[in-house]
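Review form for a predicted model. The reviewer records the input and the model, then writes brief findings.
Reviewer: anonymous (R2)
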Amino acid sequence: MTCREMLCALLFSHCLIVSLCHFPRRHRSDNCSSGIKACARSTGSLAHYEVFSLAVRIRIMASQPFEPFCVENPTDWFLRMESAHSLLQASSGNTIDKKTYLLATMGSKASVLLTDLLAPTGVSDTKVTYDLMKTTLLSHLKSQHLEIAERCHFYSATQGPNETSSEFFGRLKKMAQYCNFGLALESMIRDRLVLGCRSIQARTKLLQIDPLTLKTV
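Model under review:
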């Protein structure tokens, strides 16, 4: 199946996924091909059965649907996507084109963004490889983050009134992604955890610990 055929079928495949949510449980297993084929035949789109099957398998391979492309944390999203691709390929025993898999999982917003970034070259062009698509997206998103602005945002972070320490720590890790702290990353997060702590008593206690490490906090 060519990339052009795959792109023509994507819209219908999303509709198919929605309809499959109402199928009996047995059709949501790895052996749901007969149910998928029946849907494709009833709509006259049996020629695109391959991409429908791929799209369905992508979304049923985990307990929850594979989330669309994440602009806030694109590097981690690509790592999860590539791991999911390897798992799906191993479980199916078939070779699944990584570029096709990316286009089937990234979601409509990322697809429009990628199309704009690659223009006038289309995503279906054979010159547009998976690596080029990945590099294009990551480079574009990275250029949108100014280091000084990201650090200013990080330095001003404080623990929310209903935010747990673990949630505050997770938020700081995400905020530090584009701060380019390098080897000082752990100490920066440690400092912000202490200085931004909601409890004055807890902060006072932490300031008396020597040495104070991120694990200690």
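Findings: DSSP finds eleven helices and no strands in the chain.
Further findings: The longest helix spans residues 74-92.
Recommendation: see findings above.
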